[in-house]
Design goal:
Strand content: 5-15%
CATH topology of the largest domain: Rossmann fold
CATH class of the largest domain: Alpha Beta
Distance between the termini: 43 Å
Radius of gyration: 18 Å
Order of helices and strands: HHHEHEHEHEHEHEE
Largest sheet: 7 strands, mixed
Number of strands: 7
Structural class: alpha/beta
Shape: globular
Helix content: 40-55%
CATH architecture of the largest domain: 3-Layer(aba) Sandwich
Strand order of the largest sheet: 3-2-1-4-5-7-6
Number of domains: 2
């Protein structure tokens, strides 16, 4: 039987059940958006602060924000919102946002990833039709906000990221956010990043140091063994800043 690892997801799930029990979930869209705090948990609020912390660091250097492991697209929209806040107007046009995902769940798990349920191939598979719906939503957002678009790249990052870098040799990278969970995809992305990043580039991790996702930490140790790993004080997320 797979090992059960306690995570904060358990607490979050219980809080969402409490919210659903006490508040109607059929609020009008405008009221729902204005009252999202009703449905927040400490972890989701801390995550927003974490992303803002990273964006403030990324804003000090020129380049794209690239996320690996998009899932349903929540964080890409958060990056867009932060771009509008930190770099409003024409400045936002200089900050591309790119997201990579298989859109079919995890691919490439092996023994380095342990036996936690969420590191198996196929975990985090998105619902059918979600990508098309998300892209339609993003285009509608951009029609309203007039912000620059974002780029979605599908496929296994062990090939798709390499191909994308080859096709975009001019790309500077300010921030890379890795939420791949698995050793082999994380290792490949970090190896490619090491050839492209420069002093000051932020490389952040969703699961580094987590007992449930050992592969991400192992890949970090192998590719950037001498970089200090900083922990965000309001959560268990971490990052390195290359060459500091």
């Amino acid at each position: 039987m797979p090992k059960r690892v306690y995570t904060r997801h358990d607490t979050a799930h219980n809080l969402w059940e409490v919210t659903a029990e006490h508040f109607p979930l059929d609020l009008p869209p405008d009221e729902l958006v204005r009252n999202l705090g009703l449905f927040e948990t400490p972890m989701t609020t801390a995550r927003t602060l974490w992303f803002s912390h990273l964006y403030e660091k990324a804003a000090q250097t020129t380049g794209a924000i690239i996320e690996f492991g998009v899932y349903l697209g929540r964080d890409l929209v958060l990056w867009e919102n932060l771009r509008s806040i930190h770099e409003p107007g024409y400045r936002s046009s200089y900050r591309r946002i790119v997201g990579f995902d298989t859109f079919q769940g995890h691919v490439g798990s092996n023994k380095a990833d342990g036996d936690f349920d969420f590191v198996k191939d196929g975990s985090f598979q998105i619902p059918d039709g979600w990508v098309d719906s998300f892209l339609s939503y993003v285009r509608a957002r951009h029609d309203v906000t007039k912000e620059p678009g974002l780029v979605l790249v599908g496929g296994d990052v062990r090939s798709s990221f390499t191909e994308w870098l080859r096709d975009n040799p001019d790309t500077l990278i300010s921030l890379a956010y890795l939420d791949l969970d698995l050793y082999l995809p994380t290792l490949h992305v970090l190896q490619e990043l090491k050839r492209r990043v420069r002093t000051g580039t932020v490389v952040a991790f969703d699961e580094a140091g987590s007992l449930g996702y050992p592969g991400e930490s192992q890949a970090l140790n192998e590719v950037f063994p001498n970089e200090p790993v900083h922990r965000f004080p309001l959560g268990n997320w971490s990052y390195i800043q290359v060459g500091e």
